[in-house]
Design goal:
12 helices, Rossmann fold, Dna Ligase, domain 1, 9-stranded antiparallel beta sheet, alpha+beta, globular, 3 domains, binds adenosine monophosphate, D-amino Acid Aminotransferase, Chain A, domain 1, 17 strands, 4-stranded parallel beta sheet
Length: 366
Amino acid sequence: MNSLAKKIGVIGAGQLGRMMALSGYPLGCKFAFCGGSTDEPSALLGDMHVGEICDTKWLLEHADVITYESENTSVELVKGLAKTKPVFPPEKSLYVSQHRGREKALFDELEIPCAPYEVVSSLEELKQAVDLIGLPAVLKTTTEGYDGKGQFVLKEAAQIGEAWNTIGNRELVLEGFVEFDRELSIIAVRNEQNEHVFYPLVQNVHHEGILRYTIAPAQQIIDSVQEMAEAYMGKLLDELGHVGVLTLELFETNGGLVANEIAPRVHNSGHWTMEGAETSQFENHVRAISGMPLGSTKPRQTIAAMINIIGEEGPSAKVLSMPKAHLHLYDKSERVGRKLGHINLLADSEDELYEQIKGLSEYLPS
Ligand code: AMP
């Protein structure tokens, strides 16, 4: 192994680990995964330990540095592993991102605008929070919500009881409804040498809570907005002592950017970087956690898109026949709502990009 390359242990063995490995092998890195079954997307891409819970002894023996795929990774597990080997992103990034209330408290502390919010633990507290925040509002579980799950949009006071019964009986956060024009995200990377790099803001389009496609860079973003997003990310990276990729999801409103949530990991809205940027988010994550210099985040073309392949594989042969389309399949079986892969499209103009997207309508919600 060359002097910079590391053996990287990954908690989880899904598509994010798979794409990390695919980008890390050219740098000389090796990979070991702790996953739940030999059918998982990363299983054939390195050493694999199968178990319901991660075998820490095995992982520590197989890794120089450890990372994870999900913000639902146990903080206790990371704490324990970090006593013996470096684990990146650090415990603090994981701890904060696991809880919407903690995320928003950090946004407040760093003066990053976010929706007004109240954390509630009973129906009575929820009624009080509605009085404070007003309606419409979005009620969310503080933990374990993803892809729009564990959410209830409250439009009128008569729905409070129904909302509590649907997702309540646990800690929730009530957020003011943000009237946004677009949903954006920004991905940043920091290494231990304190280098910071930022990808351009991208636009994300969701359907039924699931990301369907990303346009990169987001169009009509003036320099000051990109700079603002980078400034927010810089504060977050430094405060968390973050190492690796960090993603911030934002709403674009006529009053400026409003933070929604962070993810301490490579992110679906960054998959376009695989062919679309000089260095992909996966390679930059591997570089960051291995102590390597970070790579350029510059886009390689005017505009790109990433379309998620959800539920069914779709017409792969058609994608393969398109000169500027790149197919990425995760080796997962078809199931409703499951992310099976994605397609990256590159173009020299917005018109050319939308022409390609139109040709792939099978992959998009009607
Ligand atoms: P989240 O799980 O927080 O990413 O929310 C899922 C989706 O719900 C977001 O992508 C938005 O489309 C929508 N959403 C979440 N929070 C709000 C909010 N406070 N106001 C308006 N829409 C929201």
